[in-house]
Amino acid sequence: MTSLDSVPRVRRGVRCTYDKTRDSDVVLFPEGVLLLNETAAAVVSRCDGAASIGDIALALADEFEGVQPDDVIEVVDRLVARRVVDVD
Amino acid sequence: MTEAPLGLLAELTHRCPLHCPYCSNPIELVQRADELDTATWQRVFDEGRELGVLQVHLSGGEPLARPDLPQLLAHASGLGCYTNLVTSGLGLTAERLADLVERGLDHVQLSVQDSDPGNANLIAGVKGYDRKLAAAALIKDAELPLTVNAVLHKANLDNIGGIIELAERMGADRLELANTQYYGWALRNRAALLPTREQLAAAGPVVQQAKQRLDGRMEIVYVVADYHEANPKPCMYGWGARQLTVAPNGDVLPCPAASVITTLPVQNVRRSSLAEIWYDSETFNAYRGTEWMREPCRSCPRKEIDFGGCRCQAFQLTGDAAATDPVCTLSPDHGLVQDILGAEIIPVRPELAMRRSV
Ligand SMILES: C[S@@+](CC[C@H](N)C(=O)[O-])C[C@H]1O[C@@H](n2cnc3c(N)ncnc32)[C@H](O)[C@@H]1O
Ligand code: SF4
Ligand code: SF4
Q: Could you tell me which Pfam families the record lists for this protein (chain A) (predicted)?
């Protein structure tokens, strides 16, 4: 189960980039491509294997108004399901 | 509205040192003299990226047979595309791999024929087993993510447990266990390759247990044997929806098997741009979406799930690419598949016809 203490890390072989054709942040990985909204992109960029979900939520609260810790958990869960992120 | 493609499968060459009788490459292989040159492939990647392609799969044949592979890979990677090398592993050396990594290689998909070395070499038609182990070790040393792909059929399905262990030993992050799809050489060899119901029934639980045992360590993707199923396999994510294939001679296809549909005009990068082909060609528009469908697909709740099955298979088995895939039990042509299973899964099977060299 992911919780505020979980530490997410972008999996090996996953690359984040910006796609001008779609005007969107994207993650590229062996199985496919995922288009990210701004919040999700901000979460992915902080999944460094050091910051916990709680840390990430705190950092994002400064940047994006109204982002709740539960939103971050939800984004991470979705990224785990797509094998973009691992959680310790 | 038609969306931009995400993936481009670049079949750089049909040349290959192996002779897999299950190979999905067409019987009429593209000759070396007809292959696109370096500059044309690079233009194709430019056009692909411009169109929206974010993933380039470098495949074949054996992509390592192209001496310009490093330049092609560097070009695709330089455009910002994720690069995946789809290889038999034969021809991979530490030097070549280091060079490819340097130029931006993101992922490798390595195919294996079997866990039993003797049988693997028989299926490949060359002594490749040890070289594949060596290739896997190189890929792991380079810290690249690795997918192992094993095509399953009558001659190796009983070893599925061993194949899973082989992939573990190779350090795979993912394992694709793909029952043979009957195109190209595999279609020619169908009567020798079709597994029995008993084989498939025995394989199922082995895969399930391994999935549980390896959860979180190695992802296992099992592709079912569609002739034995009640529902057809989906046509990718739909015809002309997410990916395009460029054959060694520059022919552009909605999927790697689509050259079998002889009723559609052939598109080629030497004559048209990828954007024209993707958005405007008759070939790519023919089976887009669901409008082209007839009954029973038209009113079926599964039509957005499987898109009526495989157009190539429909054409191969019925002569009509717009027909419901005969694998579907609702298809009026489903008897064709039942007849094939009855006539071809018999005690004495034909010899395997090994894939020719180009
Ligand atoms: C045609 S091969 C070309 C690349 C390389 N020569 C290799 O075998 O890995 C591309 C991928 O398709 C798989 N493949 C080949 N024939 C197939 C078939 N009839 N059904 C399903 N997969 C197949 C191979 O195992 C490989 O992973
Ligand atoms: S499937 Fe076998 S014969 Fe076909 S291209 Fe790959 S290695 Fe060569
Ligand atoms: S009728 Fe068509 S859409 Fe429905 S399951 Fe069969 S192939 Fe798929």
A: PqqD
Q: CA–CA separation, B324 vs A4, rounded Å?
A: 49
The answer, for B184 touching chain A at a CB cutoff of 8 Å, is: no
Domain count, chain B: 1
pLDDT tens-digit readout, B66-110: 999 999 999 999 999 999 999 999 999 999 999 999 999 999 999
Do the chains contact at A12 and B145, CB–CB below 8 Å? yes
Q: Which residues of A touch B59 (CB under 8 A)?
A: none
- From the CA of B306, the nearest ligand is 3
**From ligand 2's centre to the CA of B248, what distance in Å?**
14
Tokens read off for B62: 């054996």
Per the annotation, does B16 bind a ligand?
A: yes
Provide the b/e sequence for B114-138 (b: ≥16 CB within 10 Å).
bbbbebbbbbbbbebbebbbebbeb
Q: What is the DSSP letter of A48?
A: B
Assigned token pair, A15: 């690359």
**Order of strands, sheet of B174-179, starting from the edge strand that comes earlier in the sequence:** B219-223, B174-179, B146-152, B107-112, B82-87, B55-59, B7-11, B243-246, B251-253, B267-268
Q: Which domain holds residue B206?
A: 7-228
Cα angle: A40, vertex B74, A41; to 5 degrees: 5
Q: Domain ranges in chain A?
A: 8-87
Question: Using DSSP, how many helices (H) and how many strands (E) does chain A show?
Answer: 3, 5
- Residue B310: strand, helix, or coil: coil
Domain-embedded: residue B108: yes
What pTM does this model have?
A: 0.95
Q: Is residue B320 part of a domain?
A: no
| Model ipTM value | 0.87
- A48-62: pLDDT as tens digits: 999 999 999 998 888
The answer to whether B214 contacts chain A (CB < 8 Å) is no
B310 found inside a domain:
no
In a domain, B137, yes or no: yes
Can you give the CATH number for the domain in which B186 is found?
3.20.20.70
Interface test with chain B among A12, A35, A84, by most B beta carbons within 10 Å: A12
Average pLDDT of the residues in A64-86: 89
Instruction: Give B174's strand partners.
Output: B147, B219
